[in-house]
Amino acid sequence: MKNTLATIILFLLSFSAYAQNFSFGTITFDDYQFDKKQLDSNANAVVLKEFGTASIQLNDSKGSLELVFEHHVKIKIYSKEGFDHANIIIPLYKDKTREETITDLKASTFNFENGQFVATAMDKKSVFLENKSKYLMLAKFTLPNLKEGSVIEYSYRLNSPNLFNFKTWEFQSNIPKVHSEYLVYIPGIYTYNVSLRGSQKLSDQKVELAKECLRLSGATIDCSKITYLMKNVPAFIEEENMTAPSNFKSAIYFELAEVQNLNGGKTAYTKKWEDINYELATDKSFGLQMKRKDVYKDLIPTITKDATDDLSKAKAIYNYVKKQIKWNNYVGMYSEDNIKKSLELRSGNTGDINLNLISALLTANLDAEAVILSTRDNGTVNKLYPVVSDFNYVVAKVNIGDQSYLLDASEPLLPFGLLPLRCINDQGRVINLKKASYWMDLKASQKTMTSYILTGKLNEDGKIIGTITTHSFGYAAYNKRKDIKRYSSTDEYVEKLDDRLPKIKILNQTIENLDSVENALTERYDVEFTVYDGITSQFYLSPFFINTITKNPYNLNDRTYPIDLGTASDERIIINIAMPDQYELLEKPKDMAIGLPNNGGKYLLQTTFQDHSISCNQILQFNNAIYPAEEYLVLKAFYSKIIQNQKTELLFKKR
């Protein structure tokens, strides 16, 4: 697009006449006394008014088109907890040659003192830039002189070289908004695909004609002047078990579809997958890296010398790439330079690593493909029309017999065929160098499974001596291995674990299969903990000291987005404790058997006391990776019942 548009001689008329902005610094008693109960009585801050405008203009000094975005917002702070909303972060995107910039920044805090509003302007020297990554800069500032009851206000102008996505406007944020308005001017030569995401509806939308807003090579061009308005917008509250908030927040999105050129022709930016397939296959940082045979031609015989079939050959290559190239913590779909360089440097982003893997698999004559995807924190992909920039990650897919395996070699602690949870996000697009691309579901190939077994004996002195054995599978094993590897040794890990368990003393430990990621991770701990003083005639013993559920992860009155766990899970806890002969059981937690709708999961609890031995068995299962928003309140109640029951204890009495 930039090559086509850079040749255009553009004279853009000012849009100030059409602006519907509000004046900066005009704080009223209505602002100061706004009753948050009108929107949300629990809010610690409320956006009173927010206005934005966006247009495409010519930067005379650079001789190129740019997007000009202006943002103005006024916020009422109600409590100290609301002070966080005065910490402003503005993301500025960049690449090797272009970057976004902000100008005309104003920010003030208004307090009512001695019968009048007093303004405290922010010193512009308080603004600082943080280089977050090679593609992202953060402009940060904090409003001064904050008090409970303050009204803060800030505005700025952002200049962006990115015309493709115009400028997204988020109506919804983590605090409620009284009034959020967005005004855009789109020249008639541009056609954008526009979509409104989220559960909230527009209060008003107005489309008008802005006559002669653009003068182009002596000809005048009209603009579409579009106003989007949303009033009384509830806060979007993030909870556990969700993908990117951008998937669910109410916001307006733009993607460039077509540009009408001055010569009468058109440049289409909405492409077909056939176009994308060709572009990726011929891209020097993607498809051409997959095709390279020179990097692994001489290495493959050595890597696969012990392999007896295609599956063992693929595993050998996967393990080799995992060991040879360390992830530099940058996420990418493309190779930064080329796969040979990353192999030589033994470091690279996720694109470098997994394109190395695909190249090696293809060199070994295995049926390998690339799968491009959007990670969970990057949002979902638009499937109506292909937009490559929606994707930010690539993994390998190898087909062996009638089975397909998805591989990511950036995580050395993951077993063959299990993707990192960050990649389990809706669907990915399979890119084959010889065939048409297609969609495939991204699902975890294994459950998260953990079993805990405690076998112990209560002695006359009131102490339990026993052994806790834990078996972890799937993501549970991966997370535990990752946690252990943060320490210099397993002994140090156990020492820290002992510190985190003040009531339990670890006497000895054994950890098996720490580096054998294809097998279950097994931990055995000889433990000791005191139940009572050994003298008391009766005492309580809680059977819920392993993975006790003390907090409900779901606390909203309603949730408009799905509960996405990423994978199904299964946790089992078995406790067997031999008791002294002279004790009898007086009370115990109620046995439970509760289930979720549509066989979505269950919780089972059974406690028995016989032959002087207490036995407690628990099973907590979630059979689905994703639960719809309609089942949120059921899940909330499900957890509440478990938590309530786990507050009860076993009561023993000496005969």
UniProtKB/TrEMBL annotation:
<keyword id="KW-0732">Signal</keyword>
<feature type="signal peptide">
    <location>
        <begin position="1"/>
        <end position="19"/>
    </location>
</feature>
<dbReference type="InterPro" id="IPR038765">
    <property type="entry name" value="Papain-like_cys_pep_sf"/>
</dbReference>
<dbReference type="InterPro" id="IPR002931">
    <property type="entry name" value="Transglutaminase-like"/>
</dbReference>
<feature type="domain" description="Transglutaminase-like">
    <location>
        <begin position="299"/>
        <end position="387"/>
    </location>
</feature>
<dbReference type="Pfam" id="PF01841">
    <property type="entry name" value="Transglut_core"/>
</dbReference>
<protein>
    <submittedName>
        <fullName>DUF3857 domain-containing protein</fullName>
    </submittedName>
</protein>
